Amino acid sequence: MTASPLATSPAMLSPLDPDPALHLLRRATFGPTAQMAADVIRRGSSAWLEDQLQPTRIADGAVNAFLTRYSTLTFSAAKLASLTVASERQLTFTETVEATLVRQIWSNRQLVEVMVDFWSNHLNVFGALAPAWTAKSLEDRVVIRKHALASFESLLLADARSAAMLMYLGNDKSRLDRPNENYGRELLELHTVGIDAGFTEADVLNSAYVLTGRTCDEKRQYYYRPDWHYVGPVKVLGWSSANSTASGGLAVGDSYLRYLARHPSTALALSRKLAIRFVSDDPPDSLVNALADVYLANGTAIVPWLRALFGSAEFVDSIGRKARRPLEDVVASIRAMGIGLPVGSNKTAISEIRAISVWLDNQPFSYRAPTGYPDIASRWHSVTGTVSRWNVHRTLVAGAPAGLTYPALDQLLAGPPMATHGQMVDRLTNALTRQIFRSDHRQALLTAAGMTDGEPFNKRKVDQMLPNLTVLALDSPYLLLR
Amino acid sequence: MTSPAQSRLIIAAAERVKTGLAEQEALWRHGFTRRRFLAGAGMVATACLGSQLVTSRYAFAAPATGNGKTLVYVFLRGGFDGLGTVIPGSDPDYIAARGSMAIPNGSLLNLDRTFGLHPSVAALLPLWTSGQLGIVHAVGATESSRSHFDAQEQVERGVASPGTHTGWLARVLAEMGPGTTFRAVSEGVTVARSLAGAPGAIAMSGIESLTLLDSQPAMLTALESLFTGLDDPAGAHGLNTLKAMADAIPIQAQFPTPAPGAVYPNDGVGDRMADIARLIKADAGLRVATLDIGGWDMHTNAGAVTGDMANNLAALSQTLSAFATDVGPRISDVTVVTMSEFGRRLARNGSSGTDHGKGGVMFLLGGGVRGGLVHGAWPGLAPAALVQGDLATPNDYRDVLGEVAQRTLGLGSLTSVFPGHTYSPLGVMS
After folding, report:
1. How many domains does chain B have?
2. N or C: which end of chain A has fewer CB within 10 A?
3. What residues of chain B, 323 to 362, have a C-beta less than 8 Å from chain A?
């Protein structure tokens, strides 16, 4: 993780350090930390990745201890359903969001958190609205988190029994005599085979028919209601069923969902999406095709699929080809600065981080359309968004949100004595981004601080300039790109 | 460096947005369709940050292009129910198909012998009467898809074939040459698909939001260097942001509040529309503005005289009406056009809503509009006239957009804007 020789291949024109271990950390986590960089070096990239793919192997005591302060996270389905007071119901959602933020920032089980984010967007539910609060809280646990590293088939089957999804896409009201096509359509178009798979309007209607009966009660608990299920032959793409009884409708639906999960078009659509998350906004077909093969060969299992992704040449060649979305930028900045969990029982600071995520239009589980948050850099090119990110960096460096554990900025310079201001800038950028900046960017920081490269280290001047230098490193492409 | 007091401003601003949004979200107790409001940075009172900042180093006033007029493209995302808004109220096919969702004839605001407006659109009636508001019915794309995303792609590209990647407004701007930083603005989180490929098009959530805490010249100079020489679009975007911050300063001083009598709804969307009016009044060089208004995908419990659709329509009408009041005499320099990816099915579905349909409605507002008329051919709702159960689209959306672009922005030929389309104007502009 030190400065590397100038790269020559076109894929390496990025200013980001091409060190493979650092590249892996930038992609498989919400941002490298000093501790994780040390872990990767100690364990080796492959062993580190295997740990991340089996997250129960990784200790996460501090985060788990902190999360005990969010009492609704352990509410049973029955307890959630029993809540009637709006503020109590809303709390289940806000605690789910805040727990997600805590895990993204401080959990050692980073890859599973990245995949929770991936699946939460792939199977997006707009959880912030009142009808969804408790259902989304439950769905986060029993659908998304439970299956995030299992198989897509198990994830999809669970999702199609989730009150949150069924309400969000109107399937809770869909009946044999008056089907609501919304879920049946998005299941095909967004969740599985994709728009180019060649399904017809008749397929969409049949898809809706197959799913009739999957609904929820007035307490927003999922159940299957046979008398709402459409009975009769159904056919979608290459799948068909006599669907001859109302009581058998749930099993027919499961057979349909399994067919969709294992469809070659689903393999391609999901593999492209995975490659967009982890490789580049326009991933090569060679990678997408190879991932689709792995996905199908392993019965939609997620771990071998991720292993193939991180082991691919296309992944290795994609240094710096992704940009962080606004919330990822905030999370990575907090991780880079080494800011710790609040001491004691103070949850206010986490609530303020959630406020920042709302302000940046990127609160988890809060995208309105069923597509989920976009994962393409150009979709986030808002000048307001960029000014706002830069303002968040200034806010963090000034010590807000209050209540988090902020190390003194000069801790970023910890180590042997530095002789020059040039060495100081390198030490600082290495602490924040795990790399030395390109020479013109390094010079830009020195100039902003009124310093020169060879100038002897002056503690007073450095202390005075550290906040601005830290802000600039966080604003820079070295943190924006991943 | 940023002071603790300044950093508290950011947290406080973020908290206000969070609280405001949570209050709105808590109001929507019944269904998922009621999600008109936009989230976001735009709702922030970033004005409170003050604008004591930024050097003028990046500021440059490129000459404004074009004739000084502005096209405002409002996209009603999700499939706008034109049949439930501009209503053939005495048509027995409408009454039968919509059932309990049909608006009683006596509640409609009469427009002509065929159509009446949904009563929640009352705020637009004075503009209709004064001839500044026109309507196109049964409009859409004949080859359209029933997928939101496919259909939006198609109409925002302005071309059916996916071979054309740029948006139709980007091609309009290409005909007009360069301009100011605020020549093409999407008010919202992302640059609209219709502007994809337009050099310099920016997304922003209000001119007030472009204020950086603690932006000493040395810091701005460093940021400029950090985003220079990057083999990544992030570089150009960073530089664009610096320029927009600088160019925003003189505009931030002007028209800080809407004109008297211009009352925008307090739903996030209203603020965005107010900002478009502000850029027009401040002569910021705005030629094309886009605004997204979501929440029209009403598969469930859409309501009738009251309910979700009625609430959304009231907010839309109030937004357009406040905009007209706000820009005042400058309305003669503006055309607002609304459209959606498709209309909704004639028949209601099983959830007291409607599924995705075909022909829809476009509203046109501005000084150059031939107002007080429902334009275009009307195919009717008889079973034989429907296309797979939907209102047909005898009127092509490109003929409307093309005429609006020509007459508002002074464009010549539309060959490059809508390639492959034979332009046949409907006479919606005077």
Report:
1. 1
2. N
3. 349-351, 353, 355-356
